[in-house]
Amino acid sequence: MTDYTYIPQKDSERFWTIKDVHNGRGFGAYCSKDIKKDALIGDTHYMVNKLAIAITELGKFHNHSDKPTCKAVKTENKYTIYSINVVEAGTEITVNYN
Question: Could you tell me which of 96, 58, 97, 60 has the C-alpha nearest to residue 80?
């Protein structure tokens, strides 16, 4: 069994908020401040034996886009989102699921 550590972000450390997307897609995660290029946004899924055992709030609310603002990077036991370019405050956090 693979060990993992899941420590939720404190509200004071989180720089994104959940908002209604208003186009029939439901809710999304939006930056509450400007984010630098290649910045760590947060973890989305923690895995054990290829099974997601913990899905974070960011993991539940980031959305797909063909023109994403961020990328999901998989390591041995988790997925983490990083910005692709500078992301301005108020911009939705999206990744390409493909």
Answer: 58
Q: What is the pTM of this model?
A: 0.82
CA-to-CA distance for 28 and 58, rounded, in angstroms?
9
Distant-in-sequence contacts of 74-77, Cβ < 8 A, 24+ apart: 76/2, 77/2, 77/3, 77/4, 77/46, 77/47, 77/48
Question: Hey, what long-range contacts does 66-70 have (CB within 8 A, 24 or more apart)?
Answer: 66/96, 67/94, 68/94, 68/95, 68/96, 69/93, 69/94, 70/41, 70/94, 70/95
pLDDT of 75 reads: 85
Residues of the chain with pLDDT under 70: 1-12
In percent, the amount of the chain with pLDDT more than 70 equals 88
Instruction: Return the HEC string of 24-56.
Output: CCCEEEEECCCECCCCEEEEEEEEECCEEEEEC
